[in-house]
Amino acid sequence: MVLSAIWLLGLPGDWLLDDFSLLDGSFPSLLRPLTYLTFWLNFETTGPIPWAYRLTNILLHAIAVQYCYRALKRIVGDQRALLAAALFAVHPLQSDAVLYVFSRPTVLMGLFLWVALDCWLAGKHKWSILSFTLALASKEEAIAFPLVLVLLHLSISRNSREWRPIGIMFALATATGAFAVFATRAIGGSGAGSQSGVSALDYLATQPAVISWYLAQLLIPQFPGMRWQVDLWPQWGILFWLLPLALAIIARQYFTRAQSLFWLLAGLAVLLPSSSIFPIADLAASRRMYLAIPLFVLAVPITTPRWLPAIALLYAAISANWATILYRDPAQLWKTTMALQPANIEPILQYCKYISPAEALRALEQQAFPQSPAYHRELGRIYLELGKPVNALGAFGRALGLEPGIASNVHNRGVALKALGQHEAAEADFKRALEIDPNHAPARKALATPSK
Fold it and tell me: What was the pLDDT predicted at 440?
């Protein structure tokens, strides 16, 4: 737990990405109710203060590290469990889960899954089921946990009485998975399943490459950018999923007694919900390695040199400190990501939120994305802040031309027209935006606000 204190260096800083959705205190209830309960408690106790939310993440992570050590110690002994838990605590891949407030579902889920594993290994199956249920209420990706228990059963336990509680967990996981499919279809802009923009086959084919990049980052941590940019692989990439199966057949003797193959398969198992046929708009995200890190660490053979673990831990701690420095300054975080991903528009759009309008305009002019509606929307917003409504109207018009029939684009043009004093034309755009999307709140608010 003490090692987790390194993340306290990342407490300062502003909100990032989806964090902004937490500012109004209204939280959805369809998915992850336990996580949103913690967000609500944060909001009620401290208000929208980013460091308080981030501190909660860090405390949850510190407790998860303690239970990670307790659980793994029951299987591999004190020394190896300590190394795995230490790398789990400080590895820079964890920065996305611990310091990005909106990643709390991952940390909370991880905490309850480590508690569930500890209870399971202590023979407290009912408590394990309860903790697993809490993990499911934190994040639906916990559905892979029963598969890990099956691997554990086949590797070291083989106690027939375990099948009943495992079956109960599989039933809970199946129900949660089915509900997640329904919820991602019902929640607009969920970015998952049918709303991911990626076909199931393309997603599945790309994930072996993504997992290989995760493993590379695990061995040699380097900041890849706040949002990884990943190109889709051809569908024959699905064949790479056969590699773990082939490895399991070739190295069966390393599966028994929780040896290297067991930990490798367990690590892949916890990645399955976010790397399987259920696609997510973000093809890669560091936080998906949150649970897998100590499992993959234990997959390294015991015969490694004794000095290597100490070097690995030191390197990870230094890298984690670098990550916290970046997270303290969101503008620098996105500027670094822009340099690493020059073809990705997302970093520059985010960067513009943390700098002055004049600086943002220069940045947008230097790194243009003329075929992106989002680029022109941001350019229009900056022009409005600079008091240049004519330029804003042109930018919003280009966004509408590239992406017609979108309520926000029509509304934005109306805002520029209103700034130019063309109130009738602006009102017509606001009404048109509501015709496209009756729930478009900004357009409804604009119509309710009297023109000056």
Answer: 85
Residues 287-324: b if buried by 16+ CB within 10 A, e if exposed: bbbbbbbbbbbbbbeeeeeeeebeebbeebbebbeebb
- Does one domain contain both 384 and 427? yes
Instruction: Give per-residue pLDDT as tens, 212-244.
Output: 988 988 888 777 667 677 788 888 888 888 888
How far from 121 is each of 118, 136, 137, 213, 424, CA to CA, in Å?
5, 20, 22, 32, 70
Q: At 387, which CATH number?
A: 1.25.40.10
**351 within some domain:** no
DSSP 164-208: HHHHHHHHHHHHHHHHHHHHHHHSTT--BGGGSSS-HHHHHHHHH
**Do 255 and 182 reside in the same domain of the chain?**
yes
Nearest to 364, CA basis, from 304, 279, 356: 356
Answer yes or no: do 317 and 249 share one domain: yes
Could you tell me if 252 and 326 lie in one domain?
A: yes
Nearest in space to 442 (alpha carbons), one of 415, 417, 424: 415
Query: What's the number of domains the chain is made of?
Result: 2
Given a contact cutoff of 8 angstroms between Cβ atoms, the answer to whether 426 and 418 are in contact is yes
State which residues form the domain around 65.
2-332
Residues 323 and 387 in one domain: no
The runs of H, that is alpha helices, within 259-342 are 260-275, 292-298, 307-328, 330-340
pLDDT value at position 18? 84
Token pair in block for residue 261: 């193959």
Mark whether 137 and 76 lie in a shared domain. Answer: yes
- CA-CA distance, 165 to 24, in Å (whole number)? 40
280 beta partners: 192
* Chain CA centroid to CA 357, Å: 29
CB 140 within 8 A of CB 280: no
pLDDT in tens, 19-40: 888 887 666 666 789 999 999 9
Q: List the structure tokens of 342.
A: 């020059």
In a domain, 6, yes or no: yes
Helix (H) or strand (E) holding 435, with range, is: helix 423-436
Tell whether 255 and 287 lie within a shared domain.
Answer: yes
SS3 category, 23: coil
Instruction: Enumerate long-range contacts of 420-423, CB under 8 Å, 24 or more apart.
Output: 420/389, 420/390, 420/393, 423/451
Is there a single domain that holds both residue 316 and residue 368? no
Final residue before a domain boundary, out of 279, 297, 332: 332
